[in-house]
Specification:
- The chain is built from two helices and four strands, in the order ββααββ.
- The chain is α+β, with helices and mostly antiparallel strands and 96 residues long.
- The termini are far apart.
- Helices cover 19% and strands 30% of the residues.
Length: 96
């Protein structure tokens, strides 16, 4: 089962947590999990770009932070935090 939790913090940042009830991630894998082309299942057709791309989106595009929390034989969860900027809805629209 996958759980997704979204919270807005006082500092206008968003905290996003994604967890599963899988087998967890061992320490060797944790060290490399955000590296490009890293995968533990290359023979199954995986390219190892998924978590690398997520890391790039969170840290480069959203200017946030992402961390993996997991122990072997336990749930794994990713915590992401980034600042959101809401549009000024009181400003005159370019489409008026």
């Amino acid at each position: 089962m996958i759980k997704i939790k979204v919270e807005q913090a006082i500092d206008k940042s968003v905290r996003l947590s994604v967890s599963d009830n899988g087998k967890g991630v061992n320490n060797d894998t944790k060290a490399d999990i955000f590296e490009p082309f890293y995968t533990t299942a290359r023979g199954n057709g995986n390219t190892g770009l998924g978590l690398y791309m997520v890391y790039q989106w969170v840290t480069q595009v959203l200017k946030g932070d992402i961390k993996l929390h997991s122990e072997p034989q336990s749930d794994a969860y990713f915590k992401m935090q980034f600042i959101i900027t809401l549009p000024d809805l009181t400003a005159k629209s370019h489409y008026d």
